[in-house]
Amino acid sequence: MVDFGGWDMPVQYRGLIEEHMAVRTGVGIFDVSHMGDIQLRGPNSLAAVQKLLMNDASKLQIGQAHYSAMLYPNGTFVDDVVLHKLGENDYLIVINAGTREKDVQWVRKTIGGMGGLHITDVSDYYTQIAIQGPKAQATLQKLTPVDLWPIKNYWFTWGQVCGLHNVLIARTGYTGEDGFEIYVPADEATSARVWAEVLAAGEEFGAIPCGLGARNTLRLEASMALYGHEISDELNVWEANLGRYCKMDKGVDFVGREALAEVQASGGPAKRLVGLEMVERGIGRDGYAVYAVNGGEKIGEITSGSPGPFVKKNIALAYVPVSYVEVGTEVAVEVRGQMVKAVVVPTPFYKRAKSTTGAGAVAAAPVITAPLS
Amino acid sequence: MSYPETYKYAKSHEWLLMEGDAATIGITDYAQSSLGDIVFVELPKIGQEIAAGATFGSVESVKAVSDLYSPVGGVVTEVNAALNDAPDTINTAANETWIIKLAVEDKSGEGALLDAAGYEKFVAEETGH
């Protein structure tokens, strides 16, 4: 054995599977301060966001967030983001760490010329801690007087956390599980104290620190895209199956819209992202080739593949021609020189049961009908 | 981490127990710890000829896949088939969990193997602590 794949903290703390299972069954804590944050303020901020991002920000209320993306003019991805509406004319875009400099430059280049707009890279002001899992609310509730239950999925509020004032508390995450992300001042002493207090608060629920390894397998089970894998500057929105977050009819000619409209007009994309489940023994991993069955030709490539610790199957996301995207289609994955059978399955591989916490649960609860008389 | 004195160690992180012309091979405690949760072991077939220094299988954790190398050449006499169902035994007992046994024909690689103290030093240098 030679290559250990550059393992280092915090890829794992206690063990990837243990961390993954803690998030699915209890609570896990992630240090995600590597994520970047860009704040847009000023009277033109909505117009700027609408031009910059593919989702329809005019639908957001103050205190609400949604998934979106910055596109190049050809409809491929600069980055995927979560947009938060902090106030009238005040937006926070949460971006990926690895693309931060490129993203900030792109934002300045694309909308920097608009008047009535302040663009600030606030990445270094915040430490972002993610508390994820069915016991996330119970954990965080011990540290804040803010009533967390009414915060719906992809909504946020501000309040006191660990004695710190005005902390942004968002019901967001990247695990496919219920949970929160909190944004605390980035100085080391404060970050370390909050981290320790969150872990201590979660102890009774089995909280453990979780690394990037578990973060990756959790998001893969939930079929959430990772930049450089499922999305990149070579893949467009239709190919990546992210059309539900792309509002072609929002009334603004956002960057990338024209190219995406052309792809639609010419019959749609030639390839698309699908979920694969390995049928035979073998693990399909990032970059492995996908073939038509029975010695057929190479048709595509896995973008993310791994054992799914909770679903207990070897799963992968892969790009294949649209003639292969139907659920049940058999393909083969070349696993270290051998062809291993796999099948196209529905995504996500894992979907949590309807939440029993959060105001979202009210809408999901069964309607009790009053007796007629 | 523990490295039994009775074993020889390869720089590719396998341990070998040499008993005459028979070799028993597993991976080291350091290897299992570095890999993390092991979920899959690819084993050779009994009777398969393995050249000295060649790969004879692989070990996969959730995150990574690593080739297994045999420092000595020979014919596979036994494989630990229990690893098909319980690959994580390697995590809990790397030193006690053998992967293959060989009837050794080519011992040319044996000279490059380290003893327990030498391997421990090698790992310390590789990890920088």
Description:
- The complex is a heterodimer of chains A (373) and B (129).
- In chain A, the strands form three sheets. A six-stranded mixed sheet of chain A has the order 8-9-10-7-1-11. A six-stranded antiparallel β-barrel of chain A has the order 12-15-14-13-16-17. Chain A has a five-stranded antiparallel sheet with strand order 3-4-5-2-6.
- Chain A folds into two domains: 250 residues, Probable tRNA modification gtpase trme, domain 1 (Gyrase A, domain 2); 89 residues, Elongation Factor Tu (Ef-tu), domain 3, CATH 2.40.30.
- In chain A, helix 1 crosses helix 6.
- Chain A is of the alpha+beta class and 373 residues long.
- Chain A contains eight helices and 17 strands.
- In chain B, strand 1 and strand 2 form a beta hairpin.
- The model of chain B has no long low-confidence stretch (mean pLDDT 94).
- In chain B, 21% of the residues lie in helices and 36% in strands.
- Chain B has a single domain, classed as RNA polymerase II/Efflux pump adaptor protein, barrel-sandwich hybrid domain (OB fold (Dihydrolipoamide Acetyltransferase, E2P)).
Keywords:
heterodimer; A: about 375 residues; alpha+beta; Gyrase A, domain 2; Elongation Factor Tu (Ef-tu), domain 3; 2 domains; 8 helices; 17 strands; about 30% strand; globular; disordered N terminus; B: about 130 residues; OB fold (Dihydrolipoamide Acetyltransferase, E2P); six-stranded antiparallel β-sheet; three-stranded antiparallel β-sheet; 4 helices; 9 strands; about 20% helix; about 35% strand
